[in-house]
């Protein structure tokens, strides 16, 4: 699912919200997660998972064309750890009535 597909589905499920408002909400959520990771914070969404930034140490790599040794700087990389509920649903666990997302207007 792409970001635009997510926005379209949320807008369809919530007819009381205008599409530009849904775009703003989704964009704000993604921006806040990004900002938190850039600050080195962890973002936990209960039942979904946790986003964090893991630090990679500097290392000596190899240029694949020449085989020459190349120094690679340390860096932070985004990491996602799925929550238990998400793992169970992805792996075909039973869908409980409490697991269903409420849909407005129904």
TrEMBL record:
Q: What does this protein do?
A: This protein is one of the two subunits of integration host factor, a specific DNA-binding protein that functions in genetic recombination as well as in transcriptional and translational control.
What HAMAP family does the database record attribute to this sequence?
IHF_beta (MF_00381)
Its GO CC terms are: chromosome; cytosol
PANTHER family membership: DNA-BINDING PROTEIN HU (PTHR33175), INTEGRATION HOST FACTOR SUBUNIT BETA (PTHR33175:SF5)
Region Disordered, residue ranges: 83-106
Care to name a GO molecular-function term for this sequence? structural constituent of chromatin
One GO BP = DNA recombination
| Swiss-Prot/TrEMBL keywords | DNA recombination, DNA-binding, Transcription, Transcription regulation, Translation regulation
The cross-references to InterPro entries, in alphabetical order and at most eight, read: Hist_DNA-bd, Histone-like_DNA-bd_CS, IHF-like_DNA-bd_dom_sf, IHF_beta
Q: Which protein family is it in? A: Belongs to the bacterial histone-like protein family.
Report the Pfam families cross-referenced here.
Bac_DNA_binding
Quaternary structure per UniProt?
Answer: Heterodimer of an alpha and a beta chain.
Return the protein name: Integration host factor subunit beta
Q: Which SMART domains match?
A: BHL
Keyword DNA-binding set for record:
yes
**GN (gene name):** ihfB
**Top-level taxon of origin:** Bacteria
> Gene3D superfamilies attached here?
IHF-like DNA-binding proteins
């Amino acid at each position: 699912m792409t970001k635009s597909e997510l926005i379209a589905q949320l807008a369809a499920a919530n007819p009381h919200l205008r599409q530009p408002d849904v775009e703003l909400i989704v964009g704000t959520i993604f921006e806040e997660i990004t900002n938190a990771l850039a600050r080195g914070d962890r973002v936990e969404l209960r039942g979904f998972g946790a986003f964090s930034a893991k630090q990679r140490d500097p290392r000596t790599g190899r240029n694949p064309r020449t085989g020459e040794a190349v120094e690679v700087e340390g860096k932070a990389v985004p990491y996602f750890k799925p929550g238990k509920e998400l793992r169970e649903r992805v792996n075909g666990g039973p869908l409980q009535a409490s697991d269903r997302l409420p849909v407005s207007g129904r």
